[in-house]
Amino acid sequence: MQNHRKPTSRVRIGALPKHFPRVHAFTASAAACVLVLAIFIPTPDVEARRMPLPVNLTSAEEVVEQPEKVVPLTPRKAIPLAAAATEAIQSLSLTVRNGDTLSDLFKRAKISAGEMYQLLGSGSEAKKLARLNPGEELTFTVDTDGKLQRLALQKDRLSQVRFTRDAQSQFQHDLVQREPDSHPAYRQALIDSSLFVAGSDAGLSDSLIMEMADVFSSDIDFALDIRKGDNFSVMFEEKFLDGEKIGNGPILAVSFTNQGQTYNAVRYVDGNGDANYYTPDGKSMRKAFIRTPLDIVRISSHFNPRRLHPVFKSRRPHNGTDYAAPRGTPVYSTGDGRVIASGYSKANGNYVFIRHGERYVTRYLHLTKRKVKKGQRVKQRQIIGTVGSTGYATGPHLHYEFLLDGRHRNPATIVRKLPKAKSVPSSEMTRFKNQTQPLLAKLENYQGPALAKLDDDN
Ligand SMILES: [Zn+2]
């Protein structure tokens, strides 16, 4: 999971028609098919110039000559087709099949290999056409002489690369990016058996649940602290294309109540364009240490996710926290720092010690593998090893210690006294409030009646 979320940068050069043509919507008349077939008949000299491609060719394959679709040319903004070519022009869309090469598709489109090589030679973006993926759609636009004027590759539902012949007969490329519609969505849940069950029952994807856990990772140990009766409400973006949901955007505002204590966080895109989560009064949610030194995604996917605690803690008269976890589970450094020891001893097994600034040291014992060396700098959440049972350990678990000024401390109680990551600067506070208050108000608005309903149900 990322420490910082940057807003997705988008290139927007032109706009696609609202309803982008679908491959299967072949509705053209028979007359149009005949016309297209006539246009695409290759000339003999073109066949003679065909050369082997540096890609896995299946040239012997019999080609089914069936245009899948005929569409009228749609005027585009970014790179116009050459003026002479705009009359009596036709488009043909072909879907890349398993094992297809660009050469196969040019054959099916009845366009000469010479033109394909000219296109491939037009630059590095065009060279990428040699690696096509099944399901991608290529739209060939040809003039009345059957000469390729434009090739458009639909990479996914949002992006298309177009190669257009310019007035000098050279291919130029541009990217057409569609932007989905975003709408805020709201979910809430009362945790009865586990965070994951509550989240998925509320209609949250696993990745959104993990994103939420990530926001609170400095405040809540999601491996150990979650209890029945904890609850959360979250507002996030849902993305739609042509009325169909295609995915989720980021969490916008979220509230989590853990063992009676409520934490609120809101997303803020600062003046530099960096998105991070803050408390409503502008303190960063990202602190010097995260609470769980383990990849809880891995743990929860291995353990039965219907259990309340994907990791359990056994309290022994010693100075650390034991996280039982499957062997091989990645272990994180809980903060930025420098490795001061990475070695093996009879008791600790494989161990890693990390110093964080002047006052803090964290220790990780019983690892199967160590992934860092003494002296190495590490970042928060960097993998430093994997869970094991080396040394005095009855089964695979991570023994984690947290020391302040050389004394063992309970990370659960010390975390609130730790230095916080930087807050929103006072110069940016007005901007912060303007952006985040509406989000928090919306979350609260949704929350009120809905939580009351939760109470009624109980
Ligand atoms: Zn232990």
Query: Which segments are poorly predicted (pLDDT under 50) over 5 or more consecutive residues?
Result: 1-77, 300-317, 450-458
Largest sheet: 9 strands, antiparallel
* Strand-residue proportion: 25-35%
What is the name of the CATH class of the largest domain?
Alpha Beta
**Which ligands, by name, code or SMILES, are bound?**
zinc ion
Contiguous helical run count: 10
CATH topology of the largest domain: Nuclear Transport Factor 2, Chain: A
The CATH architecture of the largest domain can be given as Roll
Q: What separation lies between the terminal Cα atoms?
A: 35 Å
Give the number of domains: 3
Structural class: alpha+beta
Q: Please estimate the helix content.
A: 10-25%
Inertia-based shape: globular
Q: What's the order of the H and E elements?
A: HHEEHHHEEEEEHHEEEEHEEEEEEEEEHH
Mean pLDDT value = 78
